[in-house]
């Protein structure tokens, strides 16, 4: 069963750009401003190249990559998120290393190839053809490049997107992507746990599905 089949209370008829614009405009900052920890762990040892940050939000991952020498294409559907991300990049002195692009990823995608495609928590509370998009961006990973997909496997009690049913294992999620696995080397496939702190100071343990695939040289 795919991740997208585990959505609850979804406004399936809502336009994604409209939904995410509204969500970003509700608060001055939606995300922490820190790079996602799995991205840091996996990518920090790698030589810099070209990267695609899929669903870049307010730009923390794109800025982290750019500070380490990556040339980043950062894509999101929400203009407000991209404006904040661009401002963050400017403050960090890396605006010239990031190309921010607005895309409804169900319809258009940035052009590759890329040495890294990063999809950090690429999940949505509105209709999203997630597996189809991930298959499409996987095709844009250059030979020798890395596809990194990190997904909420469990979420804390205060989350805006609770999972009440079982969710796929990393192995099931990888199978749902439908990739030709003989073209890829699996570098990481696991579900690590981490501690998170909620807005009221409560703590909880959550797990994330992690898929890291290296494209074999052709």
UniProtKB/TrEMBL annotation:
GO MF, any single term: 3-demethylubiquinol 3-O-methyltransferase activity
Signal peptide: none
Boundaries of every Methyltransferase domain copy: 52-145
Keywords: Methyltransferase, S-adenosyl-L-methionine, Transferase
Gene Ontology biological process terms, A to Z: methylation
Pfam families (alphabetical): Methyltransf_25
Top class in the EC scheme: transferase
Alphabetized InterPro entries for the sequence: Methyltransf_25 (IPR041698), SAM-dependent_MTases_sf (IPR029063)
Documented EC number(s): 2.1.1.222, 2.1.1.64
SUPFAM superfamilies with a match to the protein in the record: S-adenosyl-L-methionine-dependent methyltransferases (SSF53335)
DNA repair listed as a keyword: no
Domain of life: Bacteria
PANTHER family tied to this protein: METHYLTRANSFERASE (PTHR43464), UBIQUINONE BIOSYNTHESIS O-METHYLTRANSFERASE, MITOCHONDRIAL (PTHR43464:SF19)
Name of this chain's protein: Class I SAM-dependent methyltransferase
Organism of origin: Streptomyces abikoensis
